[in-house]
Each structure stands twice: as C-alpha cells, then as structure tokens.
C-alpha cells in the first residue's frame, strides 16, 4: 500500500465520522398560531390586558413548547406653558411603559395608554403618537426565523422586525429600551407576509411600526421558525479519529521499513 492509499483511507474514515457529527445538528420547523387561545397568561396586567401570554407550537403534527408574547410602548407628549413675559412655549417629554397583550381571531396586538379606554384599531401594534413593540420570546437562542404572517396590516404596511439575543424580561421597561440599539434588523419590506432571508439564530423577535408616526398598525397571526439544536458529539469520536491516524502512520512506517531479506 502506498502513502497515498493510506492517506486516502484515513481521510475517508475521518470524513464519514465528521459526517455523522454534522448530522447531529437536528432541525425542525415549528409553527405558531396566534389567532387562538393562549395556553397560559400572566396574572399581572397592563391597560386591562395580561402582561404576557404563551402560545404553543406544532412540530410535525405534535404540540411543542410555546412562544411567549409581551410588549412595550413609547409615547411623545407636548404641553403648552407660559414662560417669562407671558410667552408661550412647549414642553416635550417621552414616556415609556409596559403594554398588555391582547388577541382575537386576527392575531396578537398590544393594549396601551393610547387606547384611551378602548382598543385603537382593535388593540393593534401601532404608532399613534409613539411606537408599540411586540416581543416574541422563542425560549432559546437556537431559533432561525422562517416566516411570519399578519392578521391585518394598515395600508402603508410600515413595519420593522428585529432579532435579538440577550435578556429581555416581561415588564422590564428600562432594560428593553436600553437594548434597542443592539437589535438586528431582519425585515421591513412592506409585504403582507414575511419570508426571512437569514440563517442567524435568535432568542427574541421584536415587531414594531416604522418610526415615521404615520398612524400605522398591525396584528400578527402566525410565525414559524427552525429550531436548530446541537446534539453532543459522541465522546468516542475523537478517540476513533486519533486511532485511525495512528493506525495509518504505523502501516506507512512498516511499508517503508527496509527489508532484511537478501536481494
């Protein structure tokens, strides 16, 4: 056996072994429907709605772990005031708060102070005098978003979708708004249904309207994602590869050893 034969045999065995290791990353598409009833909701409320709600998913016909939805809002306020010598002025400030989550046959929305006692556009995610942010917590940072659908969407179709890995908690207003600048923008193409063009994995999706204050609004009816969970490589695999390498080296050494037999 030549050196090339030995080398090829060792490489082939290693390739087969690493092929099994690559196959250890199992993937599965899970679909979430937000037009039905959640499996659970928080006891705490905001603006008459639960602070969070969890919806179960379906993977290959089997019910699986869920997505938890919660939200936040920012509002811009102006008030008139009189300064020195009776001159009128304007005081501007921004208020931040946690929103309540609501749902109906068209999907998920948010309840906030902008509803004024009734849900504006049915409690949609909107940007009347500020922006709402709907957060979908996927449970781990192993999710690649596949697609998302809207139950309804305003005529301008002005929305943005972001991905995030970190720590976002229900009701943590300060933590959420401190993290906004680190979000990864994934979509905002004015399409009624979104197909994500990314292989990145995220723990959270954040949906909002564009920051143009054009009174846009939407509800989210569904989402599907690819859960890519790494399966541990068998502990014997490195040992196997080492053994194959040593075996090849020994055989090569024996083959090249000078013979003691007379010519």
From TrEMBL:
Keywords: Membrane, Signal, Transmembrane, Transmembrane helix. Residues 1-26 form the signal peptide. The chain crosses the membrane at residues 227-250. This is VPLPA-CTERM sorting domain-containing protein. It comes from Hwanghaeella grinnelliae.
């Amino acid at each position: 056996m030549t050196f090339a034969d030995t080398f090829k045999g060792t490489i082939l065995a290693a390739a087969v072994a690493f092929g099994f290791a690559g196959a250890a990353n199992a993937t599965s598409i899970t679909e979430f429907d937000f037009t039905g009833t959640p499996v659970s909701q928080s006891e705490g409320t905001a603006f008459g709605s639960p602070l969070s709600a969890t919806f179960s998913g379906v993977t290959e016909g089997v019910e699986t772990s869920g997505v938890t939805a919660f939200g936040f809002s920012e509002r811009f306020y102006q008030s008139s005031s009189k300064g020195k010598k009776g001159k009128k002025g304007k005081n501007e400030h921004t208020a931040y708060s946690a929103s309540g989550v609501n749902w109906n046959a068209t999907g998920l929305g948010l309840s906030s102070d902008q509803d004024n006692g009734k849900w504006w556009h049915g409690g949609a995610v909107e940007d009347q005098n500020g922006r709402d942010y709907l957060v979908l917590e996927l449970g781990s940072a192993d999710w690649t978003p596949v697609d998302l659908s809207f139950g309804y969407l305003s005529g301008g179709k002005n929305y943005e979708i972001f991905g995030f890995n970190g720590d976002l908690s229900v009701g943590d207003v300060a933590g959420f708004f401190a993290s906004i600048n680190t979000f990864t923008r994934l979509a905002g193409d004015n399409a009624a249904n979104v197909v994500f063009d990314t292989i990145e994995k995220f723990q959270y999706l954040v949906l909002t309207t564009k920051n143009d204050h054009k009174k846009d609004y939407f509800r989210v009816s569904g989402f599907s994602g690819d859960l890519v969970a790494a399966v541990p490589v068998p502990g014997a695999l490195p040992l196997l590869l080492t053994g194959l390498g040593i075996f090849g080296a020994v055989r090569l050494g024996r083959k090249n050893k000078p013979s003691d037999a007379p010519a």
